[in-house]
Amino acid sequence: MGISPATPGAQFIAAVKQFGKRYPNVHLQIHEMRPSKLMEGLREGQLDLMLCSQPASRYSDGFHWTELYTQPAVLAVRKDHPCRKARSLSELQNQQWLLQDSLDKSRIGLMFEQYQIALPERVIECSSGVMFCELALNTDVISYWPSRVLTYVQKLGRELEVLNLQEEVPPLNISLVYRNQEQITRSAMALAEELMYVYRNPNAPKLNEFEGLTMR
Q1: 160: part of which helix (H) or strand (E)?
Q2: What backbone phi and psi angles, to 5 degrees, belong to 146?
Q3: Strand intervals (E) in 73-147
Q4: Are 32 and 215 in contact (CB under 8 A)?
Q5: Would you say residue 210 has pLDDT above 50?
Q6: Residue 110 has what DSSP assignment?
Q7: What positions does the domain LysR substrate-binding occupy (predicted)?
Q8: Interstrand relation of 31-32 and 2-3 (parallel, antiparallel or unpaired)
């Protein structure tokens, strides 16, 4: 299966652990990829299913999409950024943006379209999580973050300021995607069911997502 780098880990780990108990002899391969590569792998049959942070409206492949997790997101800038007091998206249109996905596939692209503002032309795409963080901290970019990840980064003493815009920043929701039940194996469908259970059931077992993690 494939997962997006934005996938919340606590629920995912709980699902994998439970799946391993039910299917101890199944060889599970987990690939972390950007959404465009995840879609490519699903189309070509290299993946049975995936957890994707992209909206279904950006694709027309006829896959089965189930939204699992609502993940609030924010725009942030480094400390002392010249636009840290911006209050509208239009003020940021000419700034340099830092995204992990291409603008035409990202929720930021949808945000500009929703508010009828021209898409920014200065965009850095960075698929590396560590380098994304370093660029956000040390350059004058506007970066897009899941709130839970930014909170964790801030707890490590890394200084990023959340922008307080009048426009609503789109959430970075996570969806389970597969082709259809006729084309998915029994074990893959069982894993899909475990994922749906742990992400959508408030009584499902959870782990402390960031326990033991460090960032260097």
Answers
A1: strand 160-162
A2: -65, 135
A3: 73-78, 96-99, 123-125, 141-146
A4: no
A5: no
A6: H
A7: 2-195
A8: parallel
Tell me the CATH class for 2-71+172-200: alpha beta
Q: Which two tokens stand for residue 176?
A: 């389970």
- Cα(154)–Cα(158) distance, integer angstroms: 5
pLDDT digits (tens, 9 = 90+) for 115-144: 999 999 999 998 888 899 899 999 999 999
Alpha helices in the chain (DSSP H): 9-22, 35-43, 107-114, 129-138, 147-155, 186-200
Every domain range in the chain assigned CATH 3.40.190.10 = 2-71+172-200
Q: At what angle do helices 186-200 and 9-22 cross, to 10 degrees?
A: 140
Q: At the top level of CATH, which class does the domain 73-162 belong to? A: alpha beta
Residues 6+ apart with CB under 8 A from 21: none
What average pLDDT does the segment 94-101 reach? 93
Asked if 137 and 159 touch (Cβ cutoff 8 Å), the reply is: yes
Cα separation, 201 vs 68, in Å, equals 10
Residues spanned by CATH 3.40.190.290 within the chain? 73-162
Q: Which tokens in the block code for residue 188?
A: 């893959």
- Amino acid of residue 117: I
pTM of structure:
0.79
Tens of pLDDT along 151-205? 878 776 678 999 999 999 999 888 999 877 677 888 999 999 999 999 888 666 5
